[in-house]
Amino acid sequence: MTEYKSIAATDFKSDTVTTPTPSMLQAMLTATHGDDVYKEDKTTNDLQARVAEMCGKPAGLFVVSGTMGNQICLRAHLHQPPYSILCDYRAHVYTHEAGGLATLSQAMVTPVHPRNKIYLTAEDVEDYLILGDDIHTAPTRVISLENTLGGTIMPIEEIAKISTLARQHGIKMHLDGARLWNAAAETGISLSVYGKYFDTMSLCISKGLGAPVGTIIVGEPDVIQTANWFRKQAGGGIRQAGLLAAAADVAITETFPKLKLTHEVTKKLASELEEMGLTFQIPVQTNFIFLDLMKAGIDPAVLIEEGNKLGITIAGARIAIHYQTSTAAIEKLKLAVKKSLEIAKQRHANGTNGVKKPEGSLAYAVYDKIVVDH
Ligand SMILES: Cc1ncc(COP(=O)(O)O)c(C=O)c1O
Ligand SMILES: C[C@@H](O)[C@H](N)C(=O)O
To answer: What ipTM did this prediction achieve?
Structure first.
């Protein structure tokens, strides 16, 4: 891994912690300064066009977060309540976007547990679609998928089957593609191939790609225009967006090609942790490792504390690797896990090993459902 001076070098809580590189900051200095609310900023317009073209879509829109990208895309697909959105029970749009589906979209949600415990299949979806006009129901109007989810890649064949099913019933398809870059880098499947199966996609540039701010939503012009309307309504209209778009453009160019290496580093760490006796809640396929702390008998609070002692930030069961993660920090992570395992064994020996959830640990809280369900 290229060694970085970033404060993110020792932070394993998420890939959202990545910090702008000198080249991103340099690009900001030469960005245009048009007013993006009036669509007058060339740097922003060029970035939108670039990502839309990469995804095989005619229109794109720069927004300030993945949450905004998802919520305004989903709202733009919905016209007359009652209606519902079908998604994975762990989907970010359902679990971590502050209830936006209920407030902005006034939508019911059908959260589906994948039978294979990893990704939704067309059979899972078909069993839970709400069709017809029975006045007791809220018919499914959108299927919202997430790729990657918890770092696992949804097979393109399954996405294709679900898309065909949706289109048979006139249901819209949205992709929370916060980490679609990671899926594309790992599978070699282009963003435009993924784009064929969705009406809208939301791609974050502020996570593994390392931009300081920004997500791009893509789709047909009419739905993107409607989404833009909801962006403005939420106060998301941006004036000199070019400063942010310039950094995002560099992030795509510079970091997208590095994601595969990040995944290799992640998988190497995972195999070393397995040699130490650790197991994982879900497969390690890209840049996340979900430790099965329950099975190891490790108290998350102990792991967090051991990390702090070594000067690294661990937030719970989820270990996030990004292109700014330092080699030294990875060595310290392994030490923290080793020490936590020793403490777990000591506690087990003297019968005091109660695994407690730490207070306020976001990443643990974010995915403790996976801990329980997997
Ligand atoms: C899968 C997924 N979708 C959407 C988001 C929301 O992105 P943001 O934090 O920029 O709102 C996140 C979190 O970063 C995420 O992990
Ligand atoms: C916490 C969550 O919203 C964020 N997307 C993350 O993955 O860290």
So the answer is: 0.98
